[in-house]
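Archive entry. Fields below.
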Amino acid sequence: MLLSAALAMAPQLQTRRRDAAAETENLLGLAAWASQFTPSVALEFPDGLVIEVSGSLKLFGGLENLIDRVKTGLADMGFGATLAVAPSAKAASWLAREAHGRFVKNSQELKEALQSLPIHLLHGRQDIQEGWAAIGVSTLGELLALPREGVARRFGQEVLDEVDRALGRLADPRSFFSVPARFHAAIELPAEIAQAEALAFAGRRLLAQLAGFLAARSAGVQRFVFRLFHREGPSTDLDVGLVAPSRDAGHFTLLLRERLVSLVLREAVRSIVLEAGNVLPFAGTARSLIPEDRTAPGDWPRLIERLRARLGNQAVHSVAVAPEHRPELAQRSVEPGTGQLQLDFGERPFWLLGAPRPIKEVASVPHYQGPLTLLAGPERIESGWWDGEDVARDYFVARTPDDALVWVYRERGQAEGWFLHGVFS
Amino acid sequence: MSFPARLPQELLEHPQVWLGSDLARTRRAGVPSGFPELDRELPGGGWPAGVLTELFPAHEGIGELRLLGPALAALSSQGLRLAWIAPPYLPYAPAITAAGIDPARLVIVKTRSEKDTLWAAEQALASNACGAVLAWLPGAKYAELRRLQLAAEAGEALALLFRPPDTARASSPAALRLALSTAQGRLAVHILKRRGAPLGHSVLLPAMPLAHRKRSSGHAMDRPSLPPAAARNAAARVAFA
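PREDICTED_STRUCTURE:
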């Protein structure tokens, strides 16, 4: 039907130009998604996928369960599809195209199932297609009834070969799709969306596709990026980071929703792209036979790595006591998990100031946030005369008027006076 | 004082369900705080795991960390990790060991911004690799705390947030919120929010006043006396250190 004729019948019709490139991209995305069911996925351009499932039936609990999963998955991603099952790839593809998704499970039924399929499914030159009409053959069944030699002579051996492949009499090797290293998928929104939260629906479809892609690669991601494209201006990027690699579409969707809640769109969104670059190996979680009370402890080294990746190596450390009397030298920064000396010091505060802070002395009473009450002390520390950093101090535990406990000392060396050195938090 | 028996148990135990009529029964037992009078008032009998706990010390130095000492010591002796994120000062190893906390189980995370602090706290909570996560968050907003709450629910860690006292009035998704102050030289814990009925009065902790060990003050030797720190009574020390 011409566009003008269609518009004449339905003036409110919305039309779009068919986008072959986008279709191909979607098909490739679906191939990656389908690879979670079997490693043998072949593309049938422009709109078909052939997946070899006989090896996967046991894993997925039988054909019916597998088909259910495929159907649900496709629906989650927002794709419509006709499924067919047959013992040969070509027959399955034909049945999907012409027989509204018939499920043929064995070779005996196959021939019968192919009988009624239209002859134009056979690829061929224009003259061959016209030839079928000339001899009054319109279905595969009618072709199969003809003598093979005659058909081969008139239409060529390729025609018979194609039928034989469909019937499983000839091998039909396919080149299998290999899952790409990165994930990239796009959705063109049917209408522009100005409300951020309304994007969750479209985003969920992309995330379902991502989860399938990751399952196919036995992988997970720790970060994915949504790019929201507007009519004008640069895209709005939503960078979603995860704590641990995952391929749980439900979890992804939850995170996306969290992000969308706080997002204010400066312009309506026309299309969404989901990208995930750094695909990490992820085996999934093994479930225990016995339900556990406590969840398994997480991966400590990985946590340290992640913290360091963002904050820097120096920012993530532990502390250890050192055999040294000068308080500022009695500890050092160490790698997390370093074994410890057991040393006995006096009363020490949880917080040590980076450098002692001079505090006032009023009428021979030290003041910090008011006059201090000395509770314990003095603990005399004299040390370090051998390396020129010698200290001579009397330490006290003191209470501020606010009831905070602090660690102060009176300098006994050259520089007299009171200093705050720690807080008993 | 009994709610209808037909309320499903899952509902009662849901981390976001708050029961006004009674102290909620929590699914998980808390980590005992080491202070029986406080444990009595905490649902689960201790610091709750898998939810946020907010602590609002009136000012620093009143014992806000000493309050956590026994619980942290118990966790570290079980081999669980402790993450201290963005502490206001450098944590001092001699005090940490004296409190019975094994510094080998401790990681200290310095951050440059509050955003990084939130991120690091979320990572530490959701990784489920820690027994307790302590974070100092002066300016966190509701949505950010909500995110942390979700991360906390994913794990089993104590999630203890130190917040300035003026933020105590803002609403928060935390399951437990405690204002800390002093009264008569003792630490007073005022429960602002808990699962269950609110508590009208403050809990005064007897062990918190300065009850320091008798020690001969005098000239310290140049060489610190070696081992028997382990043999020391950690609980008695915690009250002070």
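CURATOR_NOTE: Chain A touches chain B through 75 residues (CB under 8 Å).
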